[in-house]
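PROTOCOL LOG
Step 1. Enter all chains and additional molecules of the complex.
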Amino acid sequence: MKKLASHGCHGGTLSYYSHASTSTKCDMRFTVYMPPKPTGAALIFLSGLTCTEENFTTKAGAYARASELGLIIIAPDTSPRGDNVPDDASISLGKGAGFYLDATQAPWNTHYNMYTYISAELPKLLRENFPIRCFGLFGHSMGGHGALTIAQKHPDLFQSVSAFAPVSRPSQDGWGPAAFTAYLGSDTTTWNDYDATALMSRHTGPATLPQILIDQGLDDGAYKEGRLNPEAFAAACKSVGQPVNLRFHPGYDHGYFFIQTFINDHLHHHAAILETIK
Amino acid sequence: MKKLASHGCHGGTLSYYSHASTSTKCDMRFTVYMPPKPTGAALIFLSGLTCTEENFTTKAGAYARASELGLIIIAPDTSPRGDNVPDDASISLGKGAGFYLDATQAPWNTHYNMYTYISAELPKLLRENFPIRCFGLFGHSMGGHGALTIAQKHPDLFQSVSAFAPVSRPSQDGWGPAAFTAYLGSDTTTWNDYDATALMSRHTGPATLPQILIDQGLDDGAYKEGRLNPEAFAAACKSVGQPVNLRFHPGYDHGYFFIQTFINDHLHHHAAILETIK
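Step 2. Run joint prediction.
Step 3. Record the structure below.
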């Protein structure tokens, strides 16, 4: 793991790192906000389509409150990168569009293994290098999809979860079907494993995650086009007894001015849950 | 004046505008943060080299506290723009490097009139379109130079002033001499009119500005290279009785992680002064 840069920020440090990933078979970048007094609670934020590790880090306005709450925050990139990594002209396939899954179809299946990267390789690397006691997971849009799916599959690893304007039912809506066809093939039964609503619908037994916080702007173009569908996910949660707090906000759109408005609510949501974890 | 985009943000709106400027003879862009309950106090933030209206707007984290304090914040671009506007390969001359002066030398003197734009045209346009009672002025790096020079020359218009890592003595230091030679010519006596330290040194009579707040990071590469020299400006203030609060911060560099750390202090500084203005 190589430190590329480090900046003083709200009494702590914001650093950029690079490492050779075994999951994605390329160098991956992420940022780490280390507060002045870390409590051991660490949040991983998954970004949306077209984003890198930069978007959340520079635009979300998260680090003032993270400093106060002692939260470590990690912002990884959204896909494999590099000249050898296949790409596509679409914004919803290839670089910047990893969809937090392990691709099974050529040419994507060599590098596009963001599911394994986020759910196993990155948390292990982070634990080895930083004073981390427990993890929360959150994200925006495609990264909200990543957070809601990965946290469901790894409730012991990611013990708190939230999302901003998440892609909630990608096997049916928006950018999902085209991306899933490319990455996973045309057998749609394989898609449910990466669909937050489908995963929640088939959940049996008591809730395994604490209450999930979801914020959705009502002036969000992607929402109005039916690409996000947080209601479908909330309905699935209700059907299986998973607590969810889905909040709608008139006047807010899909971008970082929306995220920065509600980011502190998310930080408090995670901190309140994670401070109870030994 | 044309509204290009508008986004909900901390209970108010962040909007992008464009207008045909008579000063710079091109279309100019700026952003306006309008808080939910504006008090009538408006701050103009002047950005640094290479920046546009985007940098402060997306990275400074100013709008949460601006919303609470009822401050309107305007972030203009740093230079004229467009295919007809002359440019230079250097980062410190041409587009993104207007230096908040009125150029006297060809080919710059047609469009590069950022001094008139910021000190006259833009405030007039803003007053005509928004509920503004009074103005404060602040900025970063080259924009700190702009704030410290323009506020000194227009203390009745800009009634509070602050700066982050300002270029404080450009007639002698850093990027200044080359840029001033191009924009103003080789007669260095004309340069003093755009040099915060020279302007303050020749000030006579009592202070005309309330206390000026300046923050400077000690890990700032530009500072360590002698390009900023806020000490020279503070010494000039002291010599003429102008109150100044120059604060140094170990561990902070020249970028927006530094600015976001101290932005709320600046907002409170301006709000406390401007709330006393009728």
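Step 4. Note key features.
The first helix of chain A runs from residue 54 to 59.
Chain A touches chain B through 25 residues (CB under 8 Å).
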